[in-house]
Amino acid sequence: MDSIVKGFDLGAFDYVTKPFISQELLARVRSRLKMKSLNDELKRRYLEIKELESVKETMTQMIVHDMKNPLNIILGYADLLQINEAVSADPQASKYVTSVIKSGRTMLEMVMQMLDIARLESGQMDLNIENITVAEIVNEAADNMRPLLKEASVILKRCLPENIAELRADRKLLRRILANIIGNAIHYAPQDTAVTLSAVRQDQDILIEITDQGPGIPREYQEAIFEKFTQGKKDAARHRHSTGLGLAFCKMAMEALGGSIGVESRIDKGSTFWLRLRLPAA
User: Fold this and answer.
1) How far apart (Å, rounded) are the C-alpha atoms in residues 223 and 69?
2) pLDDT digits over 17-48, tens only?
3) What is the pLDDT of residue 229?
4) Alpha-carbon distance 210 to 200, whole Å?
5) pTM of the model
6) How far apart are CA 225 and CA 248, in angstroms?
7) Of the residues 175, 208, 248, 260, which has the fewest C-beta atoms closer than 10 A?
8) CA of 222: how far to CAs of 217, 230, 265, in Å?
9) Could you give the angle at the alpha carbon of 225 between the alpha carbons of 58 and 261, nearest 5°?
10) Residues 149/282, Cβ–Cβ less than 8 Å
11) DSSP output for 150-173
């Protein structure tokens, strides 16, 4: 038994005892050769799939990158049309141009998110790490939401303690994460309700929470929503459109900053998205 155990520890797959029967020995060898062949085929298929995925990702990045320039041209001319006197004097034409601009910006946002996700996945996202005051970065992100708040008839409440510790993070990236989460909360919040934005220190972490009074997220989707191209249930009343990339970007960006993101939600009770970032060592 000691020899058997030692053999397996050293990498053996099988054994026969002596005296052995030749038919049994040959059958065991054939079985192991077949298993080796199947393993080799599995490895070969795996490498082929990985290579195809790499080609697909490269092609996607090339296509998405090449979409930026024509989109920017479309938006540039649409902006010129919007300020044109003849267009602004025609309500129908003005409506059409506004729709073009809105759709173009949505598509451009999707393009930029796909490029950023590709950079984060490949570790090529350049980070500009600096000292950041939590209240300052949270307020910057919240202030940019004013037009959306007005359009949605939603109030934003801020609960930010004074003299909260500073973070070491990329200001622009963290502001984009916060804007994305706050924007989602506003979109799903019922009219005339409030979205609450809070920050608190917990030991060596800063915890930022964004809470809404929306429809909530089923438990089975609460992890999946942070994956690429996963969308929650559409809000028919608001005609909510989602690319399924925003939360995936937030998750990868938080991980790049050394933090984490998650959600706590109950159906018909609202959702709380939380961001946790580590404070710099003293």
Assistant:
1) 34
2) 888 899 999 998 999 999 999 999 999 999 99
3) 67
4) 12
5) 0.67
6) 7
7) 260
8) 6, 11, 8
9) 95
10) no
11) HHHT-EEEEE--TTPPEEEEEHHH
